């Protein structure tokens, strides 16, 4: 005697997003911790040293946070005006920051008072950075100059005026202490060599440059500005490698993850996008406000994002350990011992075994289907929890009933309340391409069955009205899609036949059939 | 036509075992059932096929135990004979020639020497008229007797044999036809008839479908088309009859059966639920659901301990009286239609085709045994008449047997067709196929055909569908993630001028794919998906495509609907030769260059076997059968024959099986093969004292020889105890293999059982064994030598056997009994050989 085979629930994949290693990696972050700052967060920089504290520049102060603390462990408040571009030295002991008034201050990470002040810029200094030898500081200012300062003597070593607009982006080379890259609002990115004292390379970004970034190998350069992110190949003399346009507002910041050197970009459109090595977007973080700055901790432990509304949002990576503690906390029910009680008993050699038949576990609707109680099975499948969180189960039961030829029996003889349930379910899911086919038959049968008595209930009538609207909209949509398809067909007809074949492969469903059936049902509804 | 003497069309096994109710022998050890033109004997305990009673020349249409001797069985056949068999040894005892085609047989204890038979009415009226006749079987010692004493009991009876039944102690016989129930009383020689209205008020269909009579009570149970069961009583008085109605079945009741004590009534129908009604307690019933196909027959053993149901999916289920299934005997399931092609599983060399609804069956042709069913649809099958359910319609294996692709379809009749393409991979651990990928909308219309590429390294599946496209499916690398995925996805979609494809085929080395679109054959390269060339030979839509193999791999053969067989040379892209033949099925042999073509012309099918490189056929066989043939397959042989004869050379490496429209599985066999079959068919005689297990069959031969040695020499006194008498051996033989302790444990027990007990003679047991084996050989030789002389005396013996079996002497003297036992123990297997070789 064969056992009852339970109803098969088909899990159709949703169209669109594909799950890859990268998406899994970037999804593995906890929900963000929000820290309120005094003003827009313009710069975040992680210390290269082990605790990886990070300096957050916002309004007139710079706060240094620990990796897991939500209160600043240190703050530098001696700015008279807005501070900009606080960044660490390579050994993490010194911090340099520019300011609105044109002063550049150098702090010891343990002290409070500025160790040095570099004066010389006539306008606000937005970007400052140490060169990789650690003894020189480079700064870019709104007075169109780019100056290099000596740290021990606090003397200006050189000043370069090659840009014709505000300098808002700066990236020193880590391999060569004499090289740095600047980006300016004059749409250019320039590579300077201190040995010659002038720019050695100039690239046209095409938009005001907001941020420049060097890959660790320093063969590739990233510049962002406008809606574009451009990658330049420095070894090929500054040739443009790719131009990415994935944001719909100005891209303000970019950074690299330390695992696999994935590029992250943040934009005023409130999104952080993560690219894979072939520069396709693999993940997307959403934020509450426009993003001004962003940084990723070494080992990708933390992604910190600063926004215009002064909120610093910090995402921590999930670890296996965390998950374990989480689940262990959740499980408060009977212990494992209870479940395995007697089940791990090993019979001895001369024991006589009496086997107990294994009871087949069936879901409630399967039990009802097994005893041919079709209406009850449909009711079970239409229960609140099932129909809202697992509509595919409800649809699977409907398909099973249809296969058994008893769908009509199951739908017949219902009162207003249960009919409303069914109609609500139809309204919600009838245009879902995964479910539309069985649900259209349900709609047909409901109309056939209750044609005579429909106008007795205003509730049901209203719902049918809505169903008609939904279907009408859907039919229109399908029609438009077909038109687009026709246009595309003509386009592809002019291409090679090989291309056409490839394209057809991606066309997911026969829209045609679908459209026809949708319109037929909507016509039915109209008739009533 | 001369060759036909050498190569013959042979009906192969896998015939229906569910035509007539199976019989359980009195000792509940054997199940007998009709199977084509033979009666098969199965063991109830091991479900193993023991032997078949062969001798009829046409379909066996009924079997009945001889009420006078429970070791004998009557069988009747459409060839007009009734045969009496000893079913334990498989010996034909007697043949009664009736002269008319027979359709059913009934016997009753009260009527000794009389059998009741269904025969067709005189054929002047074309209607299905059947007649129930009583035949007095003459008592004579001859092997073949003509029985001419026919007396009609009733004419106009139902063609359904389950509509006739004997009543209490054979006093009356009840038979029903349409809406009338007739009861014929033998003592009064009168027929009473009771009829029902054509329709009830509720519109129920009242026609009778089956009848059963209570064994001790005057009660007749009748089943009806609407699922009702009526219990008729008091029918001895024509006017005062009563009946009570019970209703559980929702479709027609197919069969009814009272248990031998009459305490329960068993019924079965399309629902595939065996229902047990308690007799006399109204509505108390028990159910045994989901037995398989719809129940056609139910029978009970004479002690009431076992029931047997036979099902529409060619299955017999053995059920204990506690309503527990204890055995399933499965034949080749053929259902209404074979939708898939006949295929060979490359691993098990089993024949694969669609079996019971939603399953693929694996059938071993070598052992004529059903191996297993693979559940493709994985849905609960609803046993209801007229319900449209998923059926497996296409299946294909890849060359190594690692992948299986199946297509299941539902809604062939209605407009909205549903179908799934499924891919199964072979799991080494579980030794069966595991579902890998389900593709819901593989095409927008029905899949016509599919094939796997035959190369070793990459597997690719090509499907063609009525939507005008062909698709290639691969288990490849995902373009986005650059990772190996183990599921299948679409690799390429191709079409040709929106024409409907008709067939597809890969070349032997998978370097070319041929897809035929209506009248055009397109050749594609599967590596680059480039259309290489097109071949066109109007008129007629292309039906079959097949590449040549081995030395002929440059040829492509196609057949069209307009009687054309073309052979293309792919190197020159030119037509090599063509001939005008209406080919219904083209099948190429995977192991040789040969291609078989079945052609249907003027109401009979001819077979041509040819090599693509020469237009002259190697072998022709006219008039293979009278129906069109659509399914055929080459089955590789286990070991190649070495026929030098030109006409049968093509059968050396593989065998050609084909399926007719009547669902007969036929094959071609050669003379040498038949000889071999004949020699192996001298079967082992089953000893009474041991239950028949496969293990026994293995050991049986050895034992027999020992017995042979034992019987003639009466020196049993000083001989050690024979091993078969020991408890250890019986235990060893009776326990199922899976609960046996390891061989190392058994070995010592076994050896110690062979040793002589220490009270016996102090002789080296090993030497004794050797001696005995020497003796054995000697005596065997002697026997062979003296066979000629012995024949005369043995024929006398044989007569004696018949006599003793025929005249039923209720009590035998002890001496007689001993004599009988001795006679039974002697080996008659050589006689079976004689009988078989006679015709």
From TrEMBL, chain A:
CDD domains: WD40. Residues 345-491 form the U3 small nucleolar RNA-associated protein 15 C-terminal domain. Gene3D superfamilies: YVTN repeat-like/Quinoprotein amine dehydrogenase. WD repeats lie at residues 118-159, 160-202, 244-276. GO terms for biological process: positive regulation of transcription by RNA polymerase I; rRNA processing. PROSITE patterns: WD_REPEATS_1, WD_REPEATS_2, WD_REPEATS_REGION. This is U3 small nucleolar RNA-associated protein 15 homolog. Part of the small subunit (SSU) processome, composed of more than 70 proteins and the RNA chaperone small nucleolar RNA (snoRNA) U3. May be a component of the proposed t-UTP subcomplex of the ribosomal small subunit (SSU) processome. It comes from Cyprinus carpio carpio. Ribosome biogenesis factor. Involved in nucleolar processing of pre-18S ribosomal RNA. Required for optimal pre-ribosomal RNA transcription by RNA polymerase I. Part of the small subunit (SSU) processome, first precursor of the small eukaryotic ribosomal subunit. During the assembly of the SSU processome in the nucleolus, many ribosome biogenesis factors, an RNA chaperone and ribosomal proteins associate with the nascent pre-rRNA and work in concert to generate RNA folding, modifications, rearrangements and cleavage as well as targeted degradation of pre-ribosomal RNA by the RNA exosome. GO terms for cellular component: nucleolus. Keywords: Nucleus, Repeat, rRNA processing, WD repeat.
Automatic annotation (TrEMBL), chain B:
Residues 766-813 are annotated as: Disordered. GO terms for molecular function: RNA binding. Residues 342-663 form the WD repeat-containing protein 75 second beta-propeller domain. Pfam families: Beta-prop_WDR75_1st, Beta-prop_WDR75_2nd. SUPFAM superfamilies: WD40 repeat-like (SSF50978). Keywords: Nucleus, Repeat, Ribosome biogenesis, rRNA processing, Transcription, WD repeat. This is WD repeat domain 75. It comes from Cyprinus carpio carpio. The lineage of its organism: Eukaryota, Metazoa, Chordata, Craniata, Vertebrata.
């Amino acid at each position: 005697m064969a056992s009852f085979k339970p109803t098969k629930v088909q899990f159709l994949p949703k169209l669109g997003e594909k799950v890859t290693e990268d998406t899994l990696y970037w999804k593995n972050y906890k929900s963000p911790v929000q820290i309120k700052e005094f003003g827009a967060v313009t710069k975040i920089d992680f210390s290269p040293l082990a605790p990886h504290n990070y300096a957050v520049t916002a309004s007139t102060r710079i706060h240094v946070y620990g990796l897991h603390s939500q209160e600043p462990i240190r703050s530098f408040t001696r700015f008279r005006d807005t501070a900009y571009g606080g960044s660490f030295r390579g050994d993490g002991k010194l911090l340099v920051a520019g300011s609105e008034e044109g002063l550049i201050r150098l702090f010891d990470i343990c002290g409070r008072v500025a160790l040095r002040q570099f004066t010389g810029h006539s306008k606000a200094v937005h970007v400052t950075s140490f060169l990789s030898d650690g003894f020189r500081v480079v700064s870019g200012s709104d007075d169109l100059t780019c100056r290099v300062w000596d740290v021990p003597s606090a003397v200006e070593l050189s000043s370069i005026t090659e840009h014709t607009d505000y300098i808002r982006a700066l990236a020193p080379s880590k391999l060569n202490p004499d090289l740095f890259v600047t980006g300016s609002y004059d749409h250019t990115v320039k590579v300077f060599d201190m040995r010659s004292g002038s720019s050695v390379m100039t690239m046209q970004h095409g938009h005001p440059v907001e941020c420049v970034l060097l890959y660790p190998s320093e063969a590739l350069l990233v510049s962002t500005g406008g809606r574009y992110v451009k990658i330049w190949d420095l070894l090929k003399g500054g040739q443009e490698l790719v131009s990415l346009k994935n944001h719909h507002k100005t891209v303000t910041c970019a950074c690299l993850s330390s695992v696999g050197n994935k590029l992250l970009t943040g934009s005023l459109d409130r999104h952080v996008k993560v690219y894979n090595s072939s520069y396709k977007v693999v993940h997307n973080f959403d934020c509450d406000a426009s993003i001004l700055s962003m940084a990723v901790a070494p080992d990708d432990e933390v992604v910190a994002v600063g926004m215009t509304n002064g909120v610093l949002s910090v995402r921590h990576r999930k670890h296996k350990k965390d998950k374990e503690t989480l689940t262990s906390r959740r499980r408060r029910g009977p212990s494992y011992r209870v479940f395995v009680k007697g089940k791990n008993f090993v019979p001895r050699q001369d024991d006589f075994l009496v086997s107990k038949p294994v009871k087949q576990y069936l879901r409630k609707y399967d039990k009802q289907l097994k005893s041919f109680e079709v209406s009850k099975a449909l009711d079970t499948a239409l229960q609140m929890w099932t129909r809202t969180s697992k509509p595919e189960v409800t649809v699977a039961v409907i398909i099973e009933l249809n296969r058994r030829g008893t769908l009509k029996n199951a739908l017949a003889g219902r009162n207003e309340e249960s009919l409303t349930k069914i109609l609500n379910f139809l309204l919600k899911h009838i245009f879902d391409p995964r479910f539309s086919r069985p649900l259209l038959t349900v709609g047909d049968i409901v109309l056939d069955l209750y044609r005579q008595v429909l106008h007795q209930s205003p509730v049901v009538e209203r719902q049918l009205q809505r169903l008609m609207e939904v279907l009408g909209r859907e039919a229109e949509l399908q029609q438009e899609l077909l038109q687009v398809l026709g246009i595309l067909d003509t386009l592809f007809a002019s291409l090679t036949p090989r291309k056409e074949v490839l394209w057809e492969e991606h066309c997911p469903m026969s829209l045609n059939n679908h459209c026809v059936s949708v319109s037929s049902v909507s016509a039915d509804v109209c008739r009533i | 036509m001369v060759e036909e003497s050498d190569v013959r069309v042979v009906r192969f096994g896998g015939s229906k075992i569910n035509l007539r109710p199976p019989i359980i022998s009195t000792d509940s050890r054997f199940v007998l059932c009709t199977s084509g033109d033979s009666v098969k004997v199965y063991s109830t305990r091991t479900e193993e096929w023991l032997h078949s009673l062969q001798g009829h020349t046409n379909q066996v249409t009924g079997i009945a135990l001889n009420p006078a001797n429970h070791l004998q069985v009557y069988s009747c056949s459409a060839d007009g004979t009734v045969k009496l068999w000893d079913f334990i040894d498989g010996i034909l005892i007697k043949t009664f020639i009736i002269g008319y085609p027979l359709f059913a047989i009934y016997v009753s204890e009260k009527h000794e020497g009389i059998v009741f038979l269904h025969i067709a009415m005189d054929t002047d009226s074309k209607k299905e008229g059947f007649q129930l006749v009583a035949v007095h079987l003459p008592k004579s010692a001859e092997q073949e007797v003509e029985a001419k004493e026919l007396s009609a009991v009733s004419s106009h009876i139902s063609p359904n044999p389950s509509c006739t039944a004997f009543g209490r102690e054979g006093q009356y016989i009840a038979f029903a036809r349409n809406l009338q129930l007739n009861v014929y009383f033998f003592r009064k020689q009168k027929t009473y008839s009771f009829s029902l209205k054509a329709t009830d008020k509720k519109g129920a269909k009242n026609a009778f479908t089956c009848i059963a009579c209570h064994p001790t009570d005057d009660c007749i149970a009748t089943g009806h088309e609407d699922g009702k069961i009526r219990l008729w009583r008091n029918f001895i008085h024509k006017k005062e009859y009563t009946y009570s109605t019970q209703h559980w079945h929702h479709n027609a009741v197919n069969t009814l059966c009272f248990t031998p004590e009459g305490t329960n009534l068993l019924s079965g129908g399309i629902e595939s639920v065996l229902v047990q009604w308690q007799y006399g307690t109204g509505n108390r019933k028990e159910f045994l659901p989901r037995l398989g196909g719809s129940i056609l027959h139910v029978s009970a053993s004479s002690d009431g301990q076992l029931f047997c149901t036979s099902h529409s999916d060619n299955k017999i289920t053995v059920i204990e009286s506690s309503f527990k299934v204890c055995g399933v005997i499965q034949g080749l399931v053929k259902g209404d239609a074979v939708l898939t092609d006949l295929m060979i599983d490359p691993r098990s060399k089993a024949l694969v085709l669609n079996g019971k609804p939603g399953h693929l069956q694996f059938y071993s042709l070598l052992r004529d045994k059903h191996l297993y069913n693979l559940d493709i649809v994985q849905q609960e099958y609803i046993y209801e008449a007229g319900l449209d359910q998923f059926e497996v319609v296409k299946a294909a294996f890849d060359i190594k047997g690692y992948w299986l692709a199946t297509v299941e379809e539902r809604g062939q009749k209605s407009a909205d067709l549903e179908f799934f393409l499924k891919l199964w991979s072979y799991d080494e651990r579980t030794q069966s196929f595991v579902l890998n990928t389900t593709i819901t909308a593989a095409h927008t219309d029905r899949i016509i055909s599919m094939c796997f590429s035959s190369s070793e390294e990459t597997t690719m599946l090509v499907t063609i569908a009525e939507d005008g496209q062909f698709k290639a499916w691969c288990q490849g690398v995902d373009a986005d993630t650059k990772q190996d995925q183990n599921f299948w996805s679409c690799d390429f979609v191709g079409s040709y001028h929106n024409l409907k494809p008709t067939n597809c085929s890969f070349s032997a080395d998978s370097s070319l794919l041929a897809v035929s679109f209506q009248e055009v054959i397109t050749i594609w390269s599967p590596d680059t998906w480039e259309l290489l060339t097109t071949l066109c030979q109007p008129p007629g839509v292309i039906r079959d495509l097949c590449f040549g193999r081995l030395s002929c791999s440059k040829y492509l053969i196609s057949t069209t609907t307009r009687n054309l067989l073309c052979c293309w040379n792919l190197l020159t892209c030119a037509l090599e030769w063509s001939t005008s033949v209406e080919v219904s099925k083209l099948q190429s042999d995977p192991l040789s260059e040969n291609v078989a073509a079945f052609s249907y012309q003027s109401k009979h099918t001819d077979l041509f076997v040819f090599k693509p490189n020469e237009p002259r056929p190697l072998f022709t066989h006219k008039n293979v059968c009278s129906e069109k043939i659509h399914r055929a397959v080459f089955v590789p042989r286990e070991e190649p024959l070495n026929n030098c004869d030109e006409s049968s050379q093509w059968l050396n490496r593989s065998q050609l099986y084909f399926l007719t429209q009547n669902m007969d599985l036929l094959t071609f066999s050669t003379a040498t093969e038949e000889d071999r079959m004949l020699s192996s068919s001298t079967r082992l005689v089953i000893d009474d004292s041991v239950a028949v297990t496969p293990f026994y069959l293995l050991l049986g031969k050895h034992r027999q020889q020992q017995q042979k040695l034992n019987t003639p020499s009466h020196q049993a006194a000083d001989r050690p105890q024979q091993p078969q008498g020991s408890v250890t051996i019986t235990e060893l033989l009776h326990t199922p293999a899976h609960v046996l302790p390891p061989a190392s444990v058994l070995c010592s027990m076994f050896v110690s059982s062979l040793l002589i007990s220490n009270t016996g003679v102090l002789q080296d047991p090993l030497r004794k064994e050797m001696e005995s084996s020497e003796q054995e050989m000697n005596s065997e030789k002697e026997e062979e030598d003296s066979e000629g002389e012995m024949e005369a005396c043995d024929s006398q013996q044989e007569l004696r056997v018949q006599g003793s079996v025929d005249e039923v002497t209720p009590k035998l003297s002890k001496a007689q009994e001993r004599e009988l036992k001795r006679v039974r123990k002697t080996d008659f297997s050589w006689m079976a050989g004689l009988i078989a070789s006679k015709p």
